[in-house]
Amino acid sequence: MKKILYTAICACSILCGAQAQTPGSEVPNLKKLYELTDSCDVNVRARFSPLIGISASISNGASRVGATYIQSIVKAGGTPVIIPAVTDGKVLRNIVSNLDGLVLIGGADVNPLWYEEEPREKLEEVDPVRDLYELKLIKMATDQNIPVLGICRGLQLLNVAFGGTLYQDIPSQRGDHSVKHRQDLPSSYGSHRVFVDANSQLATILGKDTLAVNSLHHQAIKELAPIFKATAYAPDSIIEAIDAYPNRSIMGVQWHPEALTYGGDTTMLKIFHHLIGKAETLHQAKEMHKHFLSVDTHTDTPFWFKRAGITKADRENRKSDDLLKRNFTADAPLKKCVTDITEIKAKDGKLYVSAIFDCYDLMPNGLAMADHMRAELCCETLKNANLRYPEIRGAIVHSDRGSQYTSAAYRTAIQKYGIVQSMNSAGGRCHDNARCESIWARMKEELFYNRGRRSEDYTIEALKTMVWRYFMSYWSNRRICSSIGGIPPAVKRRRFYSALTIAA
């Protein structure tokens, strides 16, 4: 597929050669054009240029990308590929699997229903199709560790995708109007200052801690998603840049570096150089791991199986001691956790839900769902917990003695994320993981039995949405849990960290 893409791109005049080739006053010469195209093909083979996917806006049924995004990637040494605005998961996965990097462009407002808010009066145009299309791209790209750069709306959507919220309209929701975030100047001019955290990756990339940036938005981050840290602020404290460094290569900026780069700004070009560098590293890793058998989709942990297979002794060695001994209390978050899988019958099969719950406040640190209960589901849960709370490294995670938790894949993931494994004692006693069992029971009662619902009346996809909203919204933020003092898990966690701040 990459050869096809290279050929198509080389034939495109704006991407042929180091400089854009545009029609001028010269008389068209077919022979000269073909010679130029052939030389371009040689240059492509001589130096690898990573494939950088660009999400598209939707206008009159067409997928559109501004030339500024394309040219910024070309200037930085990448090969831009416009991703058509379709929501078909198989089509998008085929495209994403060939990418080395992803850019999410600016555009319309994000639908507030995605972060469980009702639309406010000042909300502007939203595009449900585009939201769905780009959220799928984010999920697929980050699942494969593909470097991602979000620009303006792209930053906002990244924050929403990982559990954050937005100001739907800065002027009407913020008391501080000292900064005009929607400038009247052309986009190639900076209109206000941004202060960059001197200790951040962004400061290292740009070599500056103060910037003049363009500003073309009226929405902004309100609550930052747990995976991210803010790396730059406007004078009115609006978050202007985020990243997931060092755990993931995901970065977002609220301004438009591509417009500034197009206008000749070499500082902003460094952001695209950084993305291209990360994309090249990923491509090299993928090429190297074509020669290895790997236990995960990211192909970063080579693994060789024994020719004689897995013995009974091997399985016994994979079982860990019971470190909790039915003591499901903790004096701080992210120290002791329990994990388990539950089954929910659906109209079109069965949904399996895997979660990691914190013993301190019952917070769902990690959640994953699938139509199977293989080890991959448990590994995905660990990955999501690590993404959401990198501080979970070193925590005890307790499970039963099922084959998923004794598998080579799961134990490799345990080591990768620095987790201390604990298991039920020998004999499979269900009380050894009673905390998880009780949470599953409450979920099913409150979602189905107490409401007179049957899970069999819903599809697997519908059940996924119901379970996600139950744990990430209702259970975490609103449900009164008697075992933690009659408050929701999120409240208990906030109080813990607030107490630490006051004590300091």
Write a compact overview of the structure shown.
The chain has 504 residues and is α/β, with parallel strands linked by helices. It folds into 3 domains: 1-20 and 28-47, no CATH class; 51-287, 3-Layer(aba) Sandwich (Rossmann fold); 312-503, Ribonuclease H-like superfamily/Ribonuclease H (Nucleotidyltransferase, domain 5, 2-Layer Sandwich), CATH 3.30.420.10. The protein is built from 17 helices and 18 strands.
Account of the 3D structure:
- With 504 residues, this protein is an alpha/beta fold.
- It has helices spanning 2-11, 30-46, 67-75, 89-96, 128-143, 153-161, 170-173, 201-206, 257-262, 266-288, 312-317, 375-388, 403-406, 408-416, 434-447, 460-478, 489-503; strands at residues 51-54, 57-59, 62-64, 79-82, 101-104, 148-151, 166-167, 192-196, 210-213, 220-221, 229-233, 239-243, 250-253, 336-346, 349-358, 364-370, 396-399, 420-423.
- The strands form four sheets. It has a nine-stranded mixed β-sheet with strand order 4-1-5-6-13-12-11-8-9, with helices on both faces. It has a five-stranded mixed β-sheet with strand order 16-15-14-17-18, sandwiched between helices. Strands 2-3 form a two-stranded antiparallel ribbon.
- Strand 14 and strand 15 form a beta hairpin.
- Helix 1 (2-11) packs antiparallel against helix 2.
- It is globular, with a radius of gyration of 25 Å.
